[in-house]
Design brief:
The protein is 52% helix and 15% strand. It has 385 residues and is an alpha+beta fold. It has 3 domains: 114 residues, Acyl-CoA dehydrogenase/oxidase, N-terminal domain (Butyryl-Coa Dehydrogenase, subunit A, domain 1, Orthogonal Bundle); 108 residues, Butyryl-CoA Dehydrogenase, subunit A, domain 2, CATH 2.40.110.10; 146 residues, Butyryl-CoA Dehydrogenase, subunit A, domain 3 (Up-down Bundle), CATH 1.20.140.10. Strands 1-4-5-8 form a 4-stranded mixed beta sheet.
Length: 385
Amino acid sequence: MNFALTERQQLVREMARRFTEEEIIPTARENDAKERFPVETIRKMGAAGLLGGVVPTEYGGSDFDNISSALIFEEIGRGCSSIRTTMSVQVSLVEQLIYRWGSEEQKERYLPRLCKGEILGCFALTEPGAGSDPAGITTLARRKMDCWVLNGTKTWISNGGVAEIAIVFARTDPAEGQHKGISAFIVERGTPGFSSTEIKGKLGLRASNTAGLSFKECALPGAAILGKSGEGFRIAMAALDNGRYGVAAGCVGIMNGCIDACVAYATDRKQFGRPIASFQLVQDMIARMVVDRDAAQFLVFRAGDLKDRGVKSTLETSIAKYFASEAAVRAALDAIQVHGAYGYSNAHPVERYLRDAKVATIYEGTSQIQKLIIGEHVLGVRAFS
């Protein structure tokens, strides 16, 4: 691959960086402290074209390549992982699924409004008893004449309390077994039987919206199905491949934030009569952040290059997500150490970086799941459970 960014990619990065500096960073601390979902900022992102993703312009998208999308996730992640999470769900888990699997009617109905930020979407796969085992979902959708009737519960759904549409996975043929007989549906807010309850008190991502979803005799038209009946597990795995890419790129942004904060603090803070930037062990911690950041970024770019060339990239995406998320936690821990007691308070953003980075090792597939994916690809043997 060519490591040089194209002119358009450079312009996309500059646009995202400017938006982050002007619209996101000034309110990130307050939004986090108040657990406030910044819907007005999300709308501005849509107006600026930052939510258009890889969706073609004919459907209202921005027609970005995957490297450009990574640059946006990176810049937004540097400013606020809560907003990056909202964007990742919107772009990677909702828009891309509708574009790839949706009917022409579904594309025309939802994509232009999603890409402009006029409506928000969520991806509802996880359940109280099905997290790392998505094939274990118990939400059911039964046929009733020309409709589907949905019953079940979802949890830990990002954007779940604010989304106007939800992509919901349900078992449509229980007799088919775990991986088969699952289908995906587009459920609109306001559909009778569909409700949500917000989840508060999270360690991190406090300015993102997280909710539980409930479906009780929720009747959907036949046209609400996404893709074909029984394709749900395949659709979900494709979505997670998209989502892990955005998470990995966002973690590069967290590391960039840690580096920026540490350089500024270490060159200003003085101990023993000189800036702590001159201390060898401080330089050691910052040097490790830089090396991890560069390694993570190149892993993300490798996955993005494969995606842009239409080459299967599940392994490379898992590698990028695993390394970047774990490296972001390391960087944030060291960033707090560089800041000392000040890093332990929200006077500086590094404590928020740590809280936000931790969830990246959990959602979109835990680090342990990523290692199993990598191990299976390398060994050719599925791990014994």
